[in-house]
Amino acid sequence: MAGNFKPVAVVTGASSGIGAGYARRLAARGYDLALVARRVERLELLARELGEAHGTQVEVIGADLGQEADIARIEQWLAGNPAVTMLVNNAGTSRMGGTGALTDADVAAMLTINVTALTRLTRAVLPGFVARNEGAVVNIASALALHSLPLVSIYSGTKAYVLGFSRGLQEEVAGTNVRVQVVLPAAVATEIYDGTILPLEQLPPEIVMSVDDMVDASLAGLDRGEGITLPSVADGALWDAYDAARFELFTATQNGTPAARYKSGQAA
Ligand SMILES: NC(=O)C1=CN([C@@H]2O[C@H](COP(=O)(O)OP(=O)(O)OC[C@H]3O[C@@H](n4cnc5c(N)ncnc54)[C@H](OP(=O)(O)O)[C@@H]3O)[C@@H](O)[C@H]2O)C=CC1
Ligand SMILES: CC(=O)[C@H](N)C(=O)O
């Protein structure tokens, strides 16, 4: 733990859904919190609830992570706060629609909130975590990091970035006590579906997880030392097989010779 500070967990996107779920569970685990989102009134209600329930000290930080000035402000706050020992990069947005049909603002929001802000906030905490040889970054990706679907092509791409970035980071901090966990939930019952062309009610109920189940599974994964957590996947060996195939394929690319099927006149 840093100095004499009580550990502080920072949760972005804590005004609803998965982020609010993390805030509740981390408060119960004894963390003080810094909660980031645009809807400050919701964060304040949650702060009051957690203060009463657990004595949690909560800093409410209103910020629009789609805006450069706000990202920079949170970066500075994180970099200058050695009590922070956990960053949950949860804030995210999903704008559904064909790639050509989305507005430029929709596309910018997904790229900025899901990719740029997550990257910059991670970069802000990482040097302190490494210097203190402690700390955890929890990045919320999605099962769509593994499988792009039409109507969410850009969203899927942003989540594939979160997965790839997090895996690289895991290699970077290997050998230290700094942890990087990437979480790949499938459908979770939250407001992210509200007002979209795929409202929650249209999903088969049996594929939808509750926020509490998802957060509890993810924290159990963190406790188990997992780098990659798939809360709804019963057979953990599926990931091992997938990752082994991915690595075999990558290894096969490390070959300076064009494959025979790409050479004119040669059979595949
Ligand atoms: N629900 C699901 O099925 C799944 C969700 N996820 C991911 O989980 C994460 C949380 O989403 P979920 O809980 O489902 O959805 P919610 O819509 O309930 O929560 C999204 C959170 O992100 C915050 N947020 C959105 N835009 C901004 C912004 N511009 N600046 C700051 N905060 C912002 C919202 O706060 P505010 O509006 O107050 O700013 C809110 O707290 C996302 O990264 C999402 O991609 C992954 C897989 C499945
Ligand atoms: C399609 C979505 O927006 C969903 N939140 C997911 O990540 O599965």
From TrEMBL:
Q: Which Pfam families match?
A: adh_short
Q: Name one GO molecular function term.
A: 3-hydroxypropionate dehydrogenase (NADP+) activity
Organism (species): Devosia geojensis
InterPro entries per record? NAD(P)-bd_dom_sf, Sc_DH/Rdtase_CS, SDR_fam
Write down the top EC class of this protein: oxidoreductase
UniProt-recorded name of the protein: NADP-dependent 3-hydroxy acid dehydrogenase YdfG
Catalytic reactions on record:
L-allo-threonine + NADP(+) = aminoacetone + CO2 + NADPH; 3-hydroxypropanoate + NADP(+) = 3-oxopropanoate + NADPH + H(+)
Query: What job does the chain carry out?
Result: NADP-dependent dehydrogenase with broad substrate specificity acting on 3-hydroxy acids. Catalyzes the NADP-dependent oxidation of L-allo-threonine to L-2-amino-3-keto-butyrate, which is spontaneously decarboxylated into aminoacetone. Also acts on D-threonine, L-serine, D-serine, D-3-hydroxyisobutyrate, L-3-hydroxyisobutyrate, D-glycerate and L-glycerate. Able to catalyze the reduction of the malonic semialdehyde to 3-hydroxypropionic acid.
Report the sequence similarity comment from the record.
Belongs to the short-chain dehydrogenases/reductases (SDR) family.
